[in-house]
Design brief:
Radius of gyration: 29 Å
Bound molecules: guanosine-5'-diphosphate
Low-confidence stretches: none
Mean pLDDT: 87
Oligomer: single chain
Strand order of the largest sheet: 3-4-5-2-1-6
Helix content: 40-55%
Number of domains: 3
CATH topology of the largest domain: Rossmann fold
Length: about 450
């Protein structure tokens, strides 16, 4: 057993305004048991995985810090794969402060870095990188659908998918290497064809996986851009949906100069709604920048809410909006004609709304939820791609597979196939790269 013994508060830091009912301090590493013995003034550890009530004392002064539940885990059955201990104390600032101080003064433990517990679990083979990332996603999940996706990944759904692909590739590579190492042996006929067809099948499965963006949308939130001419009521609509005054609503045209975002839970689906500057030609430099950002945003959004003004010639505005953005797409765009309290609108194509009186809001929410579920619904049993990191590795993998198929010699094909497998291995951590690990675990909170 190597490495330092680390400790951290696993629950939020208690403040005067928000003390916790309990706070949990976790320890992991070869001397976790010694630390527990010193803080409880005992000669023997409790039975593993059994909570016991103990006085927690300052090992130097002997003063009692708190009385709480402590638990001990042997390396074989701990989360990190190392000896672990937990102190469940009262969640007061003084209690937690004194316990952390006492641990620091023991001299043989140190405070954990962000994500260090999970990183140790990975290093001891308790989980792969996709499962570790799923823990971070689960902690960050804001809606039920995000939570379900993170749990599926934490159960190894992506790990199994990527390792299955890698396993197939490894077998194909073994065939190629046999052909290189034993050129005179009688290798089975049609070997090259078989390797080709394995690579071809891998390519099409990976292509399919890459084309499906539902998992990333669900993890990151579906981006919806509210666009439309100035004064149509875009900010009012955002405020109505967000039920708080996130954007400035004003009578002067062109006040929303930047992109304002709000995160919403739309029937369990995570949505990032962005209010953009009114799309119009303007001389004002700041406003021009706003319009430029609005266009970029509108082009990149998963879904667009076109907001038009019922009191003006909205059909004409719709046409000119289509002309200034990249067209209109019935799957990507929902058209809202606002201010129907002021002017009557007759049309089945659009959602009729009054941001002032909330008329039409239920219909708009229904349309938004339908669109969100179509764009993010989990496929039956198929684990979707969830992260840009995985996407990049898979794109690399595809490029190498393509080169392997086109290679003029077996040795070159084998080298490209090896690169493809390395790219796949980077996703699960089967191929370890230290800088990569630093980046992944840095995003965790301390105590995870
Ligand atoms: P934006 O420039 O598109 O963001 O438009 P705003 O949300 O700032 O609204 C422009 C003006 O239209 C404001 O004076 C709003 O009070 C008004 N407005 C917005 N929605 C409605 C509506 O449904 N009915 C009426 N009568 N006025 C509205």
């Amino acid at each position: 057993m190597s490495g330092a013994t680390i400790y951290a508060l696993g629950t939020p830091v208690p403040s005067r305004a928000h003390p916790g009912a309990i706070s949990v301090i976790r320890l992991s590493g070869p001397r976790a048991g010694d630390a527990l013995l010193a803080l409880t003034r005992k000669d023997a550890l409790p039975a593993p995985r059994r909570m016991v009530l103990r006085a927690v004392v300052d090992p130097l002064s002997g003063e009692t810090i708190d009385r709480g539940l402590v638990v001990w885990f042997a390396a074989e059955s701990s989360e990190t794969g190392e000896p672990m201990a937990e102190l469940h104390l009262h969640g007061g600032r003084a209690v937690v402060g004194a316990a952390l101080d006492a641990l620091a003064r023991l001299g043989f433990c140190r405070l954990a870095e962000p994500g260090e517990f999970t990183r140790r679990a990975f290093e001891h083979g308790k989980l792969d990188l996709t499962e570790a990332e799923a823990i971070a996603d689960l902690v960050a999940a804001e809606t039920g659908a995000q939570r379900r996706q993170a749990l599926q990944q934490m159960d190894g759904a992506l790990y199994r998918l990527y390792e299955d692909w890698r396993g197939k590739g490894v077998r194909a590579l073994a065939h190629l290497e046999a052909a290189i190492d034993f050129p005179d042996e009688d290798l089975p006929d049609g070997l090259a064809d078989e390797v080709r067809s394995v690579i071809g099948r891998l390519q099409s499965e990976i292509d399919h996986h890459l084309a499906d963006r539902r998992g990333e949308r669900l993890r990151d939130g579906l981006s919806i851009a509210i666009i439309g001419p100035p004064n149509a009521g875009k900010s009012s609509l955002l405020n109505l949906l967000a039920r708080r005054d996130a954007a400035i609503v004003s009578e002067t045209a062109g006040t929303t100069r930047d992109v304002i975002e709000v995160h919403l839970d739309l029937g369990g689906w995570p949505v990032i709604l962005a209010d953009t500057a009114g799309l119009r030609v303007t001389q004002d430099a700041i406003e021009q920048e706003g319009v430029r950002r609005a266009r970029v945003r509108a082009a990149a959004a998963d879904l667009r809410l076109l907001v038009l003004d019922a009191t003006v010639d909205w059909k004409r505005e719709w046409q000119s909006l289509i002309a200034t953005t990249d067209g209109w797409d019935s799957l990507k765009d929902i058209v809202v004609v606002n201010k129907v309290d002021r002017a009557k609108v007759v049309s089945d194509e659009v959602v009729q709304l009054s941001a002032n009186t909330s008329t039409g809001l239920p219909e708009l929410l229904k349309r938004l939820e339908q669109a969100a579920s179509t764009l993010m619904q989990e496929g039956a049993g198929v684990a979707p791609l969830t992260r840009a990191r995985h996407r990049e590795a898979l794109v690399d993998c595809q490029a190498s597979l393509g080169r392997a198929l086109a290679a003029p010699e077996v040795a070159l094909a084998a080298e490209d196939l090896r690169l493809a497998l390395r790219a796949l291995g980077r996703i699960t951590g089967a191929v370890q790269i230290d800088e990569l690990l630093d980046v992944i675990f840095r995003d965790f909170c301390i105590g995870k």
